[in-house]
Structure prediction request, 286 residues.
Amino acid sequence: MSPTAILVSCAELPSGDGDDDALVPALTSLGFSVSWAPWDSGFDFSSADAVILRATWDYDARRPAFLDWCESVPSLFNPAEVVRWNTDKSYLVELLGAGVPVVPTSLVPPGSPARFPASEFVVKPSVGAGSRGAARFAAGADASSHVAALHAEGHTALLQPYQSSVDTEGELALVYFGGVYSHAFSKGAMLGSTMDSSGLYLTEQLGKAEPPSDAVALAEDVLDAASALLGILRAELLYARVDLVRGADGKPLLLELELTEPSLGFRQTDPAAAMRFASAVRQQLA
Prediction:
């Protein structure tokens, strides 16, 4: 009997945004029976061999329910404990404490006052997807009203100095399957972009990229540190995306580590990437 793989989405994008289209034939070629299903559709995920989070981009509004659902799925990739840790960007503070070069990050919980950086800065919710709720402010600006709005919605606000390299170089996303590097792609500046028709994420300008050695070295360190904090082997992560930017000194910094539902840039890389992903799924099941 063929193993079953369910690619998990949301009601607004039941078959994803198109980036994962190559996964269906890749998984099918390795013997999987493949289908898509929104996470909250009532579909029976319990009998599937692999339940793979791909486009669950509405979770931030219902994170407790989403985490409960994740806990109920026996064969979830990435696992529920990883999802719980990674869907709150306070993990960046943990990685910073572990010695990882991270874009300076501070958290402002509801009821706490905010101290804004002297330079240009960004405010975003610590639980969020698709850059919703993120805003960029000029040096010396008072973002108290934006912080208050996030607090009113129950969010902890996350503050970071804006990295000007994003305007000229964009971000660099390095993708790993089963803990092994697969490919990279570039991401243009998103703040100020328009919202996709689904209303779930800001549109992005993506392109192929070859990561420099210092970026690869940092991405490797990030995965090692995250795995240590989670108490797992990095090979247990079916997929990971490490988003980097250049700091003022020219050195790479971690902006985000995406272990839950990131776009993986299949349209920006070689066709074999989808097969590498499918092979990693088989490896996880073995």
About this structure: The mean pLDDT is 93. The first strand starts at residue 4 and ends at 9. The longest helix spans residues 213-230. Residues 29 and 167 are 41 Å apart (CA to CA).
